[in-house]
Amino acid sequence: MASSRGERQIGKDLTEIAGNHISRYKWAIAMLQKYLPEGGKVLDAACGCAYGSQMMAQAGYNVIGFDISEEAELYSRNFQHPKLRFKLANIFDALADQYDAVVTMETIEHIQEDQEWINALYQVTPLIIATVPNQDVVPFDPIRNKYHVKHYTKPEFEGLLSSWKLSDWHTQDGKREDHTMRPGFNSHTLGVVARR
Q: Of 39, 62, 134, 181, which sits 20 to 30 A from 56 (CA to CA)?
């Protein structure tokens, strides 16, 4: 059964993680496989309990998962892999290193300094795979979305990533039983690949 603390997924194995969250990482892996050979160094920004980090490591990538939550670090022990390291740290601390790719699933909407962080990523990676809530479908509500700073329309998301070449727009319908990310940008979640 899926569980969360606030918005962070918490579980001891994938059966305890929500299907829509797992599907986002499956899409991220497909995008990594399209643009990055196995063995590449991947930052999983705000990785939570590292279930997605483990999925990417199982796909052959060397993954470093950053999360600021001590609870996430505790649960990350259930998602270990030889190609995975978890760091208890703020995602801005991750900027001290270089990566072949950065995966950021439903993270950016939590960052007050979103443009500052995205601009800094330009210096440390040539590839970002990202998802955010779609403002046109899920309007930001500070009470309902108390852990978010904002949601993004497609033009706002494009503006945030204006220094990058954008491709592979995918979307996820939160009302479908099948949460597969599909090509497009008209549903609950916006997903994009950004390349330098």
A: 134
Distances (CA, A) of 116 to 9, 17, 71, 148: 26, 30, 27, 17
99 close to 41: Cβ distance less than 8 angstroms:
yes
**How many C-beta neighbours within 10 Å does residue 90 have?**
12
C-alpha 108, offset from chain centre: 8
CA 165 to chain centre: 18
- What does each of the 196 residues of the chain score in pLDDT, given as a tens digit? 344 445 678 888 999 988 899 999 999 999 999 999 999 999 999 999 999 999 999 999 999 999 999 999 999 999 999 999 999 999 999 999 999 999 999 999 999 999 999 999 999 999 999 999 999 999 999 999 999 999 999 999 999 999 999 999 999 997 667 789 999 999 999 999 999 9
